[in-house]
Design brief:
The protein is built from 26 helices and eleven strands. The chain is mostly helical. Helix 5 packs across helix 6, helix 7 packs parallel to helix 23 and helix 12 packs across helix 14.
Length: about 700
């Protein structure tokens, strides 16, 4: 085995280990609600709190005029005296266990002994899946050759519809699991689908971020998507709606399209692009909002061509040789831009952002198309402009994106027509769906439940948008975790600034400046924590904010994806364009409707991972010329470990059920673990009896 083969084997082994760890963490978090194991601790906390409240009420009755500060002091004294009684903790714990068992029985189907599904909507899909298992079709009956749901909008009923992928998957998933477990029922298998399918999401998230940067960035991206509240809250055990698919199919489609961009052989490009087209078809068979994946891909290809086109003209100084063709192409592009904007504004129901985006894309496409046509028409001319114009289209590989995008378009179009059973479905990317349509009054059903769904409310401010994705994990100075966090942030600032200076000495301007700016950013985070900020009530809050840290990493992820890769022609901006379009478009959608944080979180997680991987790569490069292994590998490994601690696995203290401090994890993992420990079914025996009776 030669050295190159050994290195490749080592790299593959490291990647597999990192993937397994990330998948295990994601699955463990999402599977934890299956036995309601956190119910004991929650009830135990409530019992201790009731004792504290009872003591406070007795003190207020004895001395009504006592100031609150004295009341709290006496409450704490008597509460600690109560806890000092021998065996009191064991008594409360036993009482909590008894109450928890009663609660579990209330949330458990008495016929099967299995926990009910956590959410309400999955029962809609469960009924269809059970019909498929029993009769081979999701509908209750067939009317005029069309499957019909006799129970929804009863007694009239309604057609089953075309978005049936989820129904058939749940039925097939049950068949697979029941072959291993004879006691498996459809409800239990349906409950297990989110943790299992999300494991696939983690793998492809790792692969995307690794393709853009390195395995260390891929690992951080995989952990981010596994622990961020934006995805966790809708993909846990029992939350068996279609949300998991709205994460998987975009990630899978984008990964395949990136592979089409990445491979050098044309056959590989066409193969991966065609597979991406099939994924679009599956997405269209699952969710009506499938079209946004197509828009992202087309926008990326168009922006990539625009960048290459402008870059070429600047590099070849073609602006000095322009004749009549440049004004012609620009004027035509401007006219198309204006007409497209007016058309989408007046005759479709797009919002302003999409109007402008589509108009600019059409304008850029017109300029590029005209230049290509004129390059062909004037191919025998010897004037300077025509020579330069033809030069752009004669560059190596410039036609390949057009070829594999064409393959993607053909396969996606066929798949969408088959999935949606309509040719007009191909017009969906042009704007048949908007956020305002979701909340608009409808005459199909009464009352219109969509006007009262809170998750469709606007995101409000940008702060609300990122909190819906990140949560509110912070490290308070003065605590154990706060001290560690401040030390890590200061260490990161020092290492990155020093690495940036070393890179600049090598005349590598972009990575050197990036590392220096990243170091300054972490120094600013530390200073902001030390000086504190006002909480609006006159109090000074001193925390190391995890949200700003993640936003900073996402920013450097965009920078790294745009400027971190180069080719013989210049910067390789393909991945950066796609990531930027994906991130900012879904952020805008989340701003319009908080539910769409589910779409934003994957892009944000990948941006965070790419940013971390980019910075780790710069540090590695800065010390690559060191002779000692410790000084060569240590700084990059230290940055990787520091980011893992700071973002995910910060050791610290948490409150025990009795209110005493005990060891616990902070960061995204600690926040995620807290979320899953209190996730219980909304359906109980009363609800289930009502469902089955009706």
């Amino acid at each position: 085995m030669n050295r190159s083969t050994k290195q490749n084997l080592i790299h593959v082994s490291i990647a597999l280990v990192l993937i397994i760890i990330a998948v295990a963490i994601a699955f463990e978090l999402r599977a934890s609600p299956h036995d309601m194991s956190g119910l004991d601790e929650q009830i135990e906390r409530s019992l201790y709190q009731n004792i504290r409240n009872q003591i406070a009420n007795e003190i207020r009755q004895q001395d009504p005029g006592l100031p609150d500060a004295f009341i709290q002091e006496r409450v704490e004294q008597e509460y600690q005296a109560f806890l000092s009684q021998p065996g009191i903790h064991d008594q409360i714990r036993q009482q909590a266990q008894i109450q928890a068992e009663d609660q579990r029985a209330f949330f458990t189907n008495p016929d099967t002994g299995r926990m009910y599904m956590t959410d309400l909507d999955p029962y809609f899909f469960l009924r269809y899946a059970e019909n498929i298992v029993e009769t081979g079709m999701p509908g209750d009956s067939v009317r005029d050759g069309e499957q019909w749901d006799d129970r929804m909008l009863a007694p009239v009923g309604r057609p089953v519809g075309i978005l049936t992928f989820h129904h058939y998957f749940l039925a097939g998933f049950y068949q697979v699991l029941s072959s291993f477990d004879a006691d498996m029922d459809v409800m239990l298998s349906t409950s297990w689908y989110p943790p299992v399918v999300f494991s696939i999401i983690v793998i492809f998230t790792f692969l995307i971020a690794t393709t853009i940067t390195n395995p260390w960035g891929g690992f951080i991206a995989a952990l981010a998507i596994a622990t961020l509240p934006g995805t966790l809250g809708r993909t846990m055990f029992g939350r068996s709606d279609t949300d998991t698919w709205t994460i998987l199919f975009p990630i899978l489609g984008i990964y395949l399209f990136l592979e089409a961009f990445h491979h050098k052989q044309l056959w590989a490009k066409l193969t991966f692009a065609s597979l991406a087209g099939l994924v679009v078809g599956l997405f269209a068979w699952t969710w009506s909002g499938w079209w946004y994946l197509v828009v992202f891909i087309y926008t990326t290809v168009g922006a990539y061509f625009a960048f290459r086109f402008v870059e070429y003209w600047i590099r070849e100084r073609a602006w000095e040789r322009r004749e009549r063709i440049i004004p012609t192409a620009l004027i035509a592009g401007g006219v198309v831009t204006i007409i497209t904007f007016l058309s989408t504004s007046l005759f479709t129901r797009l919002n302003l952002l999409f109007d402008v985006g589509i108009a600019l894309g059409a304008g850029f496409g017109t300029v590029i198309a005209i230049s290509g046509v004129l390059a062909y028409i004037t191919r025998t001319s010897d004037n300077a402009f025509n020579t330069a114009n033809r030069g752009f289209w004669q560059q190596k590989g410039v036609w390949q994106p057009i070829a594999f995008t064409g393959a993607f378009t053909v396969i996606a179009a066929l798949a969408v027509v088959l999935a949606q059973r309509s040719v007009t479905a191909l017009l969906r990317p042009l704007g048949a769906f908007t956020f305002s349509d979701i909340r608009a009054p409808t005459r199909d059903i009464f009352p219109n439940v969509y006007t009262t769904v809170a998750e469709l409310n606007p995101g409000g401010t940008l702060v609300n948008v990122y909190r819906s994705v990140v949560g509110q994990a912070n490290y308070t100075l003065g605590t154990v975790h706060g001290t560690i966090a401040l030390f890590i942030v200061l260490a990161l600032a020092g290492v990155l600034i020093y690495a940036g200076m070393r890179i600049l000495r090598k005349d590598e301007y972009v990575p050197g400046v990036t590392a220096t700016l990243a170091g300054a950013f972490f120094a600013f985070i530390a200073l902001a924590a030390l000086f504190g900020s006002s909480d609006g009530a006159g109090q000074t809050v001193r925390v190391v904010g995890l949200g700003p840290v993640l936003l900073g990493l996402a920013f450097f992820g965009i920078v790294g994806a745009l400027l971190g890769r180069t080719t013989e022609d210049g910067y390789d901006v393909r991945y950066g364009i796609l990531l930027a379009v994906w991130l900012f478009a879904t952020a805008y959608a989340t701003y319009l409707g908080i539910r769409f944080a589910l779409l934003l979180t994957p892009a944000f997680a990948i941006a965070v991972g790419v940013g971390a991987g980019y910075l780790i790569g710069i540090v590695w490069k800065a010390f690559a010329d060191e002779k000692q292994a410790v000084t060569r590998i240590g700084p990059a490994a230290g940055v990787f470990a520091a980011l893992l601690l700071l973002v995910f696995f910060m050791p610290g203290t948490v409150g025990s059920p009795s209110g005493e401090s005990e060891f616990g994890w902070r960061g995204l993992y600690g926040q995620a673990d807290s979320m899953t420990s209190v996730d219980y079914p909304l359906v109980d025996d009363t609800w289930y009896e009502l469902y089955t009776t009706v």
